[in-house]
């Protein structure tokens, strides 16, 4: 799936979540609340990486890691949408910047 298709899938799910939040809470989540949810997902991901390293016990670690990484990607895509960030361009520019930095600092 291309990044634009991932972005569209994330938008569709966000739209559905917003309708659910309206029914449940009378309003949809703000970008700040989406970010807080992302932080929780990153915490879950951290625990699962410990499980994958054998430090914490958990069954089906690979499946759970895949799920949590996908949750985190959804949050990143959704936050990029919230703040009107062209993630594809930003990613390309950032990787180019890091590449230039590494070229200057590699032995």
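Q: What amino acid sequence fits the structure above?
A:
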């Amino acid at each position: 799936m291309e990044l634009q298709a991932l972005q569209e899938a994330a938008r569709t799910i966000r739209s559905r979540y917003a309708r659910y939040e309206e029914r449940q809470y009378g309003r949809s989540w703000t970008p700040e609340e989406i970010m807080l949810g992302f932080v929780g997902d990153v915490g879950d991901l951290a625990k699962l990486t410990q499980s994958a390293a054998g430090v914490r016990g958990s069954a089906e670690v690979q499946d759970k890691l895949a799920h949590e990484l996908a949750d985190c990607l959804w949050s990143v895509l959704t936050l990029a949408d919230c703040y009107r960030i062209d993630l594809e361009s930003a990613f390309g520019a950032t990787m180019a910047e890091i590449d230039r930095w590494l070229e200057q600092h590699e032995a």
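Q: And what stands out in the fold?
A: Residues 20 and 26 are 9 Å apart (CA to CA).
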